[in-house]
């Protein structure tokens, strides 16, 4: 259980939510876990819920407190809301900004600044932790180049140029990705990103991790009342969660890439966990996907201190924290969207 930005996160499984006066009561196996006042809450997010009382749902709907239900894996199920008030205003603001490329750039560049900063942090961390196993000069050179890219991104005024700076930064960062693979080098290597289909073991893992991350971010955006399909950097495309792809940019390296590298370097995944198809596509076996998913859920439980909020939360709640901050920015409660910049 975590109270963050006026949102109550119920992260334990099999918890029943009920109402007692003006309080929410959390019950598990007939035992009361907590009793909290509702008057300061804007939303309640329940993972793997057992149920919620009609009285609580009615109370929340009447007072415009969103009640969101997700699976334990973070997949969005439903959101119970009352009369449309705050969310429709929020989404209309989102749509207006998305339709204006200049305003879209002002939001999108912070996603990319966060991405470049976090990728730079990964490289700096490697030079500190493994100075004898990597080419430190190479990593430092790329890190300095990423610093330049951040400065250029900060002053970027249109989406086309922003995509150009992001692409250059990605090329620089990817030059070091293979060097961060320290174990099983014969079976795990990275030369370039291949998506449809992935052509090697590392790309197969990266694609799977990015899919999981995109789903988590999309669920978080929907939970706070935003439209996951209408983005700022990624433009509208039928069936694409464009805003989720925007927000996840700052988490790709520091969460997904780092997670994949850890699985390889700790030998949690090995060459027997992959199959190669006739068309050259490399896919993970069913057992490997189960191992991957289990490790991903475990990773999401790890505690960190959010760099902007200064509060201890799990990695799994980072997409929700960023979604809440984005919603606050769109409501003019913040002067600027604060990207997740890990330290």
Automatic annotation (TrEMBL):
Give any Pfam family that matches: Cas_Cas1
Name of the protein in question = CRISPR-associated endonuclease Cas1
* GO BP annotation list: defense response to virus; maintenance of CRISPR repeat elements
Q: Which NCBIfam families match?
A: cas1, cas1_DVULG
Lineage, top-rank taxon, reads Bacteria
Where along the chain is Mn(2+) bound?
Answer: 166, 234, 249
Q: Name one GO molecular function term.
A: hydrolase activity
Q: Which InterPro entries match?
A: Cas1, CRISPR-assoc_Cas1, CRISPR-assoc_Cas1_C, CRISPR-assoc_Cas1_DVULG, CRISPR-assoc_Cas1_N
Per its UniProt record, the required cofactor names are: Mg(2+); Mn(2+)
Keyword set, alphabetical order = Antiviral defense, DNA-binding, Endonuclease, Hydrolase, Magnesium, Manganese, Metal-binding, Nuclease
Repressor is among the record's keywords: no
